[in-house]
Amino acid sequence: MKVNDNYLKEQLKHVYWLNGGCCAGKTTMTRKFVEELRFQTLRDDVLKYRSFTSHVEYPALQYPHPKLDWDKWFNRPNDEHCEWLFQIVKEMMEFFVIDLLKMPNDQPIIIDLGIMPEEILPFIPKERIVCLYTSDQEIERLYYFREDHKMILDVINRTANPEESIKNGNKNMVKFSHDIREACIKHGIKTIERTPELSVDEQFKLVRGHFGI
After folding, report:
1. Cis upstream peptide for 64 (omega within 30°)
2. Which residues does 154 contact at the CB level (< 8 Å), separation at least 6?
3. Pairing outcome for strands 15-20 and 40-41
């Protein structure tokens, strides 16, 4: 069953989307919208959605899982890993949109989810999407050492060569970020770079300015 995009556009006209790659400030901006402007938000829940899927129809949603060979997983070719990252979000959207529709529509919603823009442009106009990005160096400096990624780093540290696993993983995240940004630019979506010099409040002002809030 496919939901009509025009109907979705009408029902989700209170939704704003923070797109982009990792370490770009999406989670921080979401927290600002929720705490200061009383926005609602919705977190993606792969494990929740996975329980309703099969490996035939939703192959990407079945990964990662505890029985994986973590050395192979963290050292896969970059194209292969990025393809999985984009596919898992695409498969998840079928469930995510339903959860969005179930939320109250009397308060705006801010979404923090990196995705190829063509997956959401049919029902979220580009005026309510912004692509946040940062430098390759910032991704390499921060991604695996964030507090919310501690569990990932713990698994990597059990691989045969953690340093090489991190290096390859960083290449995956850099490519993922580049691919989303390039697609957003192609579709005329506003991009904002997070630099070490840009304060959280300054970035928040830029995002709010784009959304007209």
Report:
1. yes
2. none
3. unpaired
pTM beyond 0.90: yes
Pair of tokens at residue 200: 């959280």
What's the half-sphere exposure (Cβ side, CA atoms, 13 Å) at 16?
24
| Each residue's pLDDT tens digit, 68-121 | 999 999 999 999 999 999 999 999 999 999 999 999 999 999 999 999 999 999
- Give tens-digit pLDDT for 31-40: 999 999 999 9
Residue 181 near residue 20, CB atoms below 8 Å? yes
Which of 40, 37, 20 lies closest to 138, judged by CA? 20
User: For 160, phi and psi rounded to 5 degrees?
Assistant: -65, -35
- Which residues, 6+ apart, have CB-to-CB distance to 97 below 8 Å? 3, 8, 123
Asked if residue 206 has pLDDT above 70, the reply is yes
Alpha-carbon distance of 72 to 65, in angstroms, equals 13
Asked if 114 and 89 touch (Cβ cutoff 8 Å), the reply is yes
CB 112 within 8 A of CB 26: yes
For residue 118, the 8-state DSSP code is G
Give pLDDT tens digits for 155-198.
999 999 999 999 999 999 999 999 999 999 999 999 999 999 99
Pair 169, 140: CB distance under 8 Å:
no
Structural contact between residues 119 and 180, judged by C-beta atoms closer than 8 angstroms: no
Amino acid present at 12? L
Residue 27 tokens read as: 């989670």
